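Posting this for the archive.
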Amino acid sequence: MSKLTTHPASEPARTELSDFAELTQARIALGRAGSSTPTAHEQRFQLDHARARAAVWSEVDEDALLAHLDPLGLPIITVESEAVDRADYVRRPDKGRLLAPASRQALADRSGRFDVVIIIADGLSATAINLNAAALVADLVRRLEAAGLLLAPIVVARRARVALGDAIGETLGARVTITLIGERPGLSAADSLGAYLTYAPISGTPDSSRNCVSNIREHGMPLPRAAEAIAALVERIFNARLSGVKLVESRLSSEEPTKIASVPMASPGDEGTDT
């Protein structure tokens, strides 16, 4: 009768890959137990998978959000997409891009001539909104008002995709939309917030006309740095009267050829990260 051979978990050898593991939450240099990953890492994977699934079906704590936004002194409008509930929203992305008729009318009643509207959208991770949105909006409002921009009422959008911001901005009469939305959860982050900026929003605006600042969260881009980046991007958008790929191209064309490679850019949004 042969004995059962055990394979104790082994730590990965110290390599350049191990150095990268200290800089990222991605699953690299995990070591192994026999032909499998160590139990602790397997359990962590299962936990992160559960968190990602929970984030998709989570709901924004609107009472807490509104309580934090109220001291900013801006009116707040709550709107909905045509998705009737969370299940409809997840299964029908197209409905999340369409503004419900009653919400369109509510926005039309408050329309004017605004420079910027900040939209808080649940997207595919209300967890990201609950953890990050209020503090980020407060910082943004301070920066944008200091720049002399006229802000529209803050809009809280339920069951929203990125493109819902186009109809919101168009109906309110805002020149630029900043849509803060919960990004699609991954297995290393279920709390990531994305900011999508669009100049002259109208329904049907292509994703190539947006700019995006993504991975806004505690272990990604910190909130103060994100607010600074978004405010700087708003300034560039107003100066160029462009957003998206055209804004990036206009900046590159103004740089000396030897400097182009080092130009930091906010990447255009795409449907692959649409939430």
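The longest helix spans residues 126-146. DSSP finds nine helices and six strands in the chain.
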